């Protein structure tokens, strides 16, 4: 088993010359410090300065300059199709749910409550297994993290509101 040492930064431009790869689901690609098993049977300790959302195609940069490619792993998702995807996307977004938006479908993580809501709105829901790389959000790339947009951000409504 090869120990690749520490990965200390992320290269979002290229995985060229990668010595191995890690395959991680959506939750697994949000990390700061963690030991990971590589596809080739090795290990690497991710030791980043701050918690980072890794994307499919990123590279973890090792202390010696080597690279470990990041791949998004397949996971259980819901595929949503329907006559009015814009309306369905609005309702999903109103629940602050990570969503991948494509021309003819939406992909969200498996959630029976949201599946029921989408069906009631006329959408067609089917389980699929695929890598999940949702939209990054309006306030920069990365993950949407609920309602905390920082100390200088305000809403026209209170932050303790309900989404019904």
Automatic annotation (TrEMBL):
It comes from the Bacteria. Residues 145-164 have a biased composition (Basic and acidic residues). Involved in urease metallocenter assembly. Binds nickel. Probably functions as a nickel donor during metallocenter assembly. This is Urease accessory protein UreE. GO terms for cellular component: cytoplasm. One of its GO terms (biological process) is protein folding. Belongs to the UreE family. SMART domains: UreE_N. It holds the Pfam family UreE_N. GO terms for molecular function: nickel cation binding; unfolded protein binding. Residues 135-164 are annotated as: Disordered. Residues 6-68 form the UreE urease accessory N-terminal domain. Keywords: Chaperone, Cytoplasm, Nickel. Gene3D superfamilies: Urease metallochaperone UreE, N-terminal domain, UreE, C-terminal domain. It is found in: Cytoplasm. InterPro entries: UreE (IPR012406), UreE_C_dom (IPR007864), UreE_N (IPR004029), UreE_N_sf (IPR036118). The keyword Cytoplasm applies.
